[in-house]
Amino acid sequence: MINQKEHFVAWAQLITELDDAKEHLDSLTKRMVQDGGIDDAEFAVELGHVYAHLNRVWHSRSQESEITEEQWPIFSQFPNDLKPVG
Q1: Is 81 within a domain?
Q2: Helices 40-60 and 8-35: crossing angle, nearest 10°?
Q3: Which of 4, 22, 53, 64 could connect to 11 by a Cys-Cys bridge, CB 3.0–4.6 Å?
Q4: Would you say residue 46 lies in a domain?
Q5: With contact defined as beta carbons under 8 Å apart, do 61 and 4 qualify?
């Protein structure tokens, strides 16, 4: 796992991705509570967006540099080496 001291730029990108996931999830939650629901298609898009941020965090956790344009779509995909807990 990278750290802030040794890999400042990559660490900043990782933290930004986590913050973005949190912001989007908070926004989705507030909107769903306010509206009283959401349709499946829109819900899928919104959760897909949150997952993309989280997926990039997971895939870049050991990368010592920023995510490149070529890596972006690969790192946005669901990980196959992470097992859900709970």
Answers
A1: no
A2: 160
A3: 4
A4: yes
A5: no
Is 47 a domain residue? yes
pLDDT at 84: 86
- Structure confidence at residue 75 (pLDDT): 97
Does position 86 have pLDDT exceeding 90, yes or no? no
Say how many domains are in the chain: 1
pLDDT tens digits for range 18-76: 999 999 999 999 999 999 999 999 999 999 999 999 999 999 999 999 999 999 999 99
Identity of the residue numbered 22: K
Q: What is the DSSP string of the chain?
A: ---TTT-HHHHHHHHHHHHHHHHHHHHHHHHHHHHT---HHHHHHHHHHHHHHHHHHHHHTT-SSPPPTTHHHHHTSPPSS-----
- Range(s) of the domain holding residue 61: 8-75
36: in domain: yes
- In the block, tokens 């509206």 appear at 35
